[in-house]
């Protein structure tokens, strides 16, 4: 069945009414439709080629808004390049590129400029645009021409960037901009061409393209590999038993007719030689294929070692079984088929166990990816509709009912509820949410239902950023890994060379039968060496450690941050927002010189109206609480680190600290003393002067976070020097410091001097961490050896920080340092284990102990040791999963 | 020393030297990537017991897309890491997995599997 382009009815093809237009055949239900079509074909074709154009983003003035993820911006200057390129286009009204969120926001007139041109502009600026990928299954495609037809049609659809249709797999891969096109529309395009289309899996947003999409498939592949290895192990393990038995007839006291030299035993040996072949080429096939492809790449790995070892053992044994007479002595005609079977069996078992253990190591990231919500209930045009979460766009209003997952980040617009944010912040107690509060995607709504406006979607959501940060950290290198990198390139070839030289040495100087000794030593050396344990040691612990951090709301940026964090000796805490809650309130008003309390508050609040200082906000809020109507100030001027001045109702108002008052030559009288009392209580007093005369003091105070004191005690107990830094006056600072037991205080530090103070501490020879909110403190965070940013809501990817604490508590700092220490300890254990194992195992296998103690390692034991060394490393790393903070 | 010992000694030494040369001193060929029409430097890397090609030459400042095709199920090569670019990807067997980034500074950057057994080099010019 095909569709009549004029009336939309389904028609039996071939229909007797048809028409050719631009090389394409159109079929109709009746002659009337055909006539209509032929009169003006363009009208109908345009309907076909422009299906369901996205219109809800178009505002009344015809300006369309587009949000495009931009990939690979490396610096803030990149944003300017892109903006410049975008603004060159006609019809682009506004272009803004956000470096932090990696998004370009474009407002444009769709009539003057096409989406493709906008995308092209970003590309020609040298950047790539993000996109979502959709996979659709398509049925009833019969020929290659169907493919081109569907592809062409898809490419014409607005919002679709590229489309490729595969006949063999009956599927289409479509890259599209989720803000422009929606899945049902894309499906409709294909269906309109009379090919049934269906979704093969959930669509995948650009962020998680590399990892989330094939996650299930990876899991399946891993599972399959595990089962294959296990069956390979069982096959070779069962055969190993008779192999061992008949390889040492004297040892097991077998009857005389089965002893060495007998025809029966020789026959059994020959049979074993043949049975070894499936062991080698089925159970051990991966060793050979791995070794071969490695050699082609001029590299060598574990597979090379095992393959060489078992091949040597098999070749020798086969010659011994086939033509024992060529050996000068009977003792030389011995077989080692048992080595082949046992080594293959054990190494397979080891690899299978390793897959299992590694699966556990990456559980943290899997959990995070699993948190991603699938759908959202969006209200568009007054209608509720369920859409895939990838299609939620900025400013969508989303409805969340009790027990549901919040799909994206946003701000509550209506209703209230309590929300379980433990999966993101690690904080077990649900958080109350009211109008204007921020909600985080992937958290769970507990009690009420509410509506919220989407403020971050796709790869900008807190969860997407967390996943990205964790993946990046897990793929980074800890500096300690450098030792391994140095060794690993040389490791395997060196082992092969050592094995060969051992063979020569044993052959030349070894006891009789020297050929047997030389062979056994060579095979044992090849088999005992375990490059995997070495290579795995650091990355596997790093993966578990970083994942564990994420579970507790601690985002560690890189392996380097982890390694530095455990070497810290001093920690600098910003006062406001770090030690204290960061939302100060008005506490005291003292008026003098005949002014009234309300009067000075009104002046102070009016002046602060023009400032953006957090203390100013507290004053304004205090005035609002007393229902004062503020007056717009004129001639506003802020003196950083001092205060502000402005004209209010023709009066010259000066508000600020003592320095500010000195600057304006204002006589403070006894206010000075009152101010000191307030400061001693941990409040921040500000003088106010009206027309050059002191009028009084307004004081604001911030509350210390409930667990700051405890956290600081822990930091001290961990041997860290705790320092407080603040722009506040020394008295207030000291008062707060006393409350939380901090001895060293840097007070009255101008924001731009914070970094300098960090440097001073570093010059004392200390490794310094700075904890701040990441916005005002960015330079100080960057200067510190480790910058810890206390996350503010959904903004987790704070550029200047090495570690981000999602949850506001200072306890996270102690936890982060403890976790770093535990992870580094684990890495060192692993590295020591791996180096120790190889460093000791290889020489012993080569027979270095033989001249002194007569000790020689059996290749069977070497196989077992090798198989379990890497499992041990992974298991040790997994111990970190049980890490608990000592608090 | 008997004749056979001399033969074994000489053969062993020659073999060792040959191996050392093969693995460490012989240069494998670098592959230069072409820029596609969309401005991306793109290439396919087959992952099977190693990366081929394993030495890749690209230009600085332009986006690079390395498409990894893992043609084996052995767990070793499951992940590819580009630590210098903070990139990693889990390679699904027999599927092309793209890794995209833009190298800004010329130099030599490594890419490797999780254990560092398979290695490749990206030369940025």
Describe this structure in words.
The complex is a heterodimer of chains A (887) and B (125). Helices cover 47% and strands 19% of the residues of chain A. Chain A contains 30 helices and 34 strands. In chain A, the strands form 8 sheets. In chain A, strands 22-34-33-32-23-30-31 form a 7-stranded mixed beta sheet, sandwiched between helices. Chain B is α/β, with parallel strands linked by helices. Chain B has one domain: Cupredoxins -  blue copper proteins (Immunoglobulin-like). Chain B is 18% helix and 39% strand. Chain B contains 1 helix and 10 strands, in the order H-E-E-E-E-E-E-E-E-E-E. In chain B, the strands form 2 sheets. Chain B has a 6-stranded mixed beta sheet, with no helix packed on it. The N and C termini of chain B lie far apart (55 Å). Chains A and B meet through helix 7, helix 9, helix 11, helix 14 and helix 15 of A and helix 1, strand 3, strand 6, strand 7 and strand 8 of B.
Throw out a few tags for this protein.
heterodimer; A: 887 residues; alpha+beta; six-stranded antiparallel beta sheet; 30 helices; flat; B: 125 residues; alpha/beta; Immunoglobulin-like; six-stranded mixed beta sheet; 10 strands; 18% helix
Mean pLDDT of chain A: 83
> pLDDT under 50 segments of chain B (min length 5)?
none
Helix vs. strand class of chain A: alpha+beta
Q: What's the mean pLDDT score of chain B? A: 84
Radius of gyration of chain B: 19 Å
Most strands sheet of chain A: 7 strands, mixed
Cα separation of the termini of chain A: 71 Å
Which percent range describes the beta-strand content of chain A?
15-25%
Percent of residues in helices of chain B comes to 10-25%
* Succession of helices and strands of chain B: HEEEEEEEEEE
Q: Find the CATH superfamily of chain B.
A: Cupredoxins -  blue copper proteins
Q: Based on helices, strands and strand pairing, what is the structural class of chain B? A: alpha/beta
How many domains would you count in the coordinates of chain B? 1
CATH-assigned fold name of chain B? Immunoglobulin-like
